[in-house]
Amino acid sequence: MGDNAKLIIGDKTYEFPVLVGTENEYAIDISKLRSQSEFITLDSGFGNTGACKSAITFLDGDKGILRYRGYPIEQLAEKSTFVEISYLLIFGKLPNQKELDKFSQTFAEFSMIHEDMKNFFNAYPSGAHPMAILSAMICSLSGYYPDLVKSHMTDDLFYRLAAQLLSQVRTIAAFSYKKSIGEPFVYPRHDLKYVPNFLNMMFSSPAKPYEIREEVVRALKVLLVLHADHEQNCSTSTVRMVGSSEANLYASISAGILALWGPLHGGANQAVIEMLEAIQADGADLNKYINKAKDKTSDFRLMGFGHRVYKNFDPRAKIIKQCADDLLNKMGIHDPLLDLAKRLEEAALKDEYFVSRKLYPNVDFYSGIIYRAIGIPLNMFPVMFAIGRMPGWIAHWREMTKDPMTKIGRPRQIYTGELTRDYVSIEQRS
Ligand code: CMC
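A: This is the predicted complex of the input protein with carboxymethyl coenzyme *A.
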């Protein structure tokens, strides 16, 4: 591979440096293209565009590889905890015991939201989607902790901000659920670890304390670890884009939560279960729905299938499928939707349409089955994704703000509208 790439347009040749990543990924650095010529590049959906250099997550979609800071996702899902991988993603190393204890203590320090913020929950109508509430609450934290959004972000301040967000996202999520079912809030407990603390806030009530089951904690921990980062996906790119204007971390993450909400991204876990329920209610005719997904005149897609980057298999989906089987077995639950999902996967993977387009189950295909077994309601599924993705968003925001190459995100366009024309007064308009 040469040092430069050549672009020949007419009788002009432009040269651009070729960059190589540590895993031998190649890029043509076209950042000087517009200043040297009148051309821009057009890449709808940014499928061929690198927006930054990053040292956080490596992903090889053809080989089904995902690593956080070099560690394979399979090892992290099996052996690590969510707090540990949050530290790893954000600070670049696995914490030693002292570092982990200090990080967890800072979580405990921040686990309760400001008392006044509890009033916010009452202002939402009962049917409000918890993603809307979560995004608004995260942004509102900036009003309650102004010291944490000072324009000069020291390492110490950032450390506290990161711990606060990771801790409070869990409290806000549980409170919004309690509000939606009309039960009193359950406060965080310092004697419980991250996942049991969340489960207790969600499911404990004055009438019935929640029994924390090891298999449930393990399944949820695995899901959070698997969702923690996925390099330049739609929501993380949004966090980076918003942050590139020097908006504070709360504002940037609030925007990321909204990007995640869409059914093509983190809202897909909810959409998968809705789809499976609809197929079930309609007689479980798989062929009918596979044909519908293939039909270009229909807007139906097989939710939980396909990925922009994975073209072989999604390593997270493999782990989650196994995790769903294990959890349901241990809990003695038979969920007909899991059987249906498996049959749907089998049928799709034999179908030429899905095979030729390399469409495989993604992280969202089986995760909803686990959330259902745990008792998490459908509209909270994307919120669970948001809790999991929090360390990734924080890590990317920090990497972006510390990178001297960062510029405000400002893509170009090719204008396809009207040419110049004169203003016409209202009386003369047709
Ligand atoms: N069902 C039916 N056809 C599909 C699907 C699907 N789920 N996904 C892609 N296709 C087809 C698509 O119609 C297109 O066909 P053709 O080449 O004939 O026009 C081809 O496959 C390529 O699809 P694309 O839309 O160009 O691919 P993309 O990379 O732009 O989109 C995706 C990726 C994930 C948005 C898409 O696969 C999709 O909509 N999947 C369903 C929603 C979903 O499960 N989202 C969760 C993604 S993983 C979690 C996350 O990180 O967000």
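Residues 45, 230, 233, 264-266, 268, 293, 301-308, 357, 359, 362-364 surround carboxymethyl coenzyme *A (CB under 6 Å). The two ends are 61 Å apart (CA to CA).
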